């Protein structure tokens, strides 16, 4: 075991808080605890910075940005004529490498040290109440232990799949060269983002989707993305499932479908969901099932425990980095407050409560076109028993959008709770709609009445005029 402890405390094994996992969530829990006056240790068996920094959010967006920028240039006369070539794939990959620091966590380790957080490298397991063992050393936590180990790609039980050495998102984002063709099993966010990036980078992409693309979003969002992928040469096959997989001696992969078709490609990516990384962290010490998602309250305290917390993907509330960091802030502050005997503000929208996990989770899909959403879809709102009205507006009719890109195409949907007169869901599809997402998030979180939103005047000529068009379509109160 490589121990890398950075502070010189008298008892190197005693801490107030021990965090298992040094991804963005674990880092933020520890940081908030330290800011609250506690002594914190994080334990990490891989790279400090976690999945997001090296194999997910950061490298995938680096791979996607070059293609997005080129499409944006080609959508504006004048710039279009200057954009005469294709992407330089080696330059794109080199830029990706720079953003992941060539898979070195030296900078992240320095940040921990500067924040006053100790680091131990190795595999951590709970071995008792408030007790974590790494290698031959056992560490004691006076106040709390936090599990922030994240999630891993789910490999479905398809005959031949494991033997075919399929890629997960890790291999797809860390690739050293782009394969000439790739088959992607799945239709969710990872699947469409990799499909978008690889199409930009010259690969022949086939997407195998059991039901519909981006099934958790409004249906028009997935349709727009699927149509765009097809228009750029990708094959999107809906309503099918793989029945078996085989990789031949030459290295090519054949996926047999349940309708009798066979899809062949150089590589295979599986993007069918996530599983918690909790199978070997000693959850049984706290009476929990190893390998399970961990149930927590809004302060991230494990239900039935007074010392064990779980933040980020492992609690299955919202498998998104920004939402995990939000949970981390609530958890770290709650741990510090409890340790100091201060009153806990854990009611709805309280300082120590991750309330937004339930009602206002923003998500941006970096596909072509982008998909940005927060809150409930129209179907989900109706399922909850809300009396809602949905209003759709073509974004291209907004003057700022038509200036932004020639022939701008996109759609925005506002889902309104009719009884309260507030927005409970918002979905946008179109180029660069991600830049409008936070205003929608504020409206949903703040439960801003539509009558008040009429007084939030959008600047002209910006894409934010979309808000006015939606309000006009909904109708002003008498």
TrEMBL record:
The keyword Nucleotide-binding applies. Binds 1 FAD per subunit. Its cofactor is FAD. Residues 15-322 form the FAD/NAD(P)-binding domain. GO terms for biological process: 2-oxoglutarate metabolic process. Keywords: FAD, Flavoprotein, NAD, Nucleotide-binding. It holds the Pfam family Pyr_redox_2. NAD(+) binds at residues 186-193, 273. It comes from the Bacteria. Disulfide bonds join 52-57. Residues 361-466 form the Pyridine nucleotide-disulphide oxidoreductase dimerisation domain. GO terms for molecular function: dihydrolipoyl dehydrogenase (NADH) activity; flavin adenine dinucleotide binding. FAD binds at residues 61, 149-151, 313. Belongs to the class-I pyridine nucleotide-disulfide oxidoreductase family. This is NAD(P)/FAD-dependent oxidoreductase. It comes from Pseudoclavibacter terrae.
């Amino acid at each position: 075991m490589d121990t890398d402890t950075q502070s010189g405390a008298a008892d190197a094994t005693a801490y107030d808080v021990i965090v298992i996992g040094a991804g963005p969530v674990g880092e933020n829990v520890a940081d908030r605890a330290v800011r609250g006056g506690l002594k914190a240790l994080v334990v990490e068996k891989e790279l400090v910075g976690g999945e997001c920094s090296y194999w997910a959010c950061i490298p995938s967006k680096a791979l996607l940005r070059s293609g997005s920028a080129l499409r944006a240039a080609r959508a504006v006369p004048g710039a279009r004529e200057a954009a005469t070539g294709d992407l330089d794939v080696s330059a794109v990959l080199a830029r990706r490498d720079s953003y992941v620091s060539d898979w070195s966590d030296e900078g992240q380790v320095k940040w921990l040290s500067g924040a006053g957080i100790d680091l131990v490298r190795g595999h951590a397991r709970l071995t008792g109440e408030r007790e974590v063992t790494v290698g031959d050393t056992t560490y004691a936590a006076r106040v709390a232990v936090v599990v922030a180990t994240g999630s891993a790609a789910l490999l479905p039980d398809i005959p031949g799949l494991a033997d075919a050495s399929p890629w997960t998102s890790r291999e797809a984002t860390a690739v050293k060269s782009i394969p000439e063709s790739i088959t992607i099993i799945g239709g969710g966010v990872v699947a469409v983002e990799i499909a978008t990036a690889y199409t930009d980078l010259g690969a022949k992409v086939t997407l195998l989707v059991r039901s519909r693309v981006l099934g958790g979003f409004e249906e028009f969002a997935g349709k727009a993305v699927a149509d765009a992928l097809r228009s750029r040469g990708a094959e999107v096959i809906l309503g099918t499932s793989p029945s078996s997989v085989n990789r031949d001696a030459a290295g090519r992969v054949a996926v047999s479908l349940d309708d009798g078709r066979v899809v062949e490609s150089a590589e295979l990516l599986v993007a069918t969901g996530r599983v918690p990384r909790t199978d070997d962290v000693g959850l049984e010490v706290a009476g929990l099932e190893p390998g399970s998602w961990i149930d927590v309250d809004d302060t991230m305290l494990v239900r039935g425990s007074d010392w064990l917390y779980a933040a980020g993907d492992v609690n299955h509330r919202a498998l998104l980095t920004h939402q995990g960091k939000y949970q981390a802030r609530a958890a770290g502050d709650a741990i510090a407050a409890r340790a100091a005997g201060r009153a806990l503000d854990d009611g709805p929208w309280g300082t120590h409560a991750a309330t937004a996990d339930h009602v206002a989770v923003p998500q941006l899909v970096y596909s072509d076109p982008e998909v940005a959403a927060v809150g409930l879809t129209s179907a989900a709102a109706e399922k909850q028993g809300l009396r809602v009205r949905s209003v759709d507006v073509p974004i291209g009719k907004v003057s700022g959008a038509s200036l932004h890109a020639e022939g701008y195409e996109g759609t925005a949907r506002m889902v309104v709770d009719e009884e309260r007169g507030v927005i409970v869901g918002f979905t946008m599809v179109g180029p660069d709609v991600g830049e409008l997402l936070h205003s929608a998030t504020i409206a949903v979180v703040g439960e801003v009445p539509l009558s008040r939103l009429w007084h939030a005047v959008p600047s002209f000529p910006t894409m934010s005029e979309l808000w006015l068009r939606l309000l006009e379509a909904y109708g002003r109160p008498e």
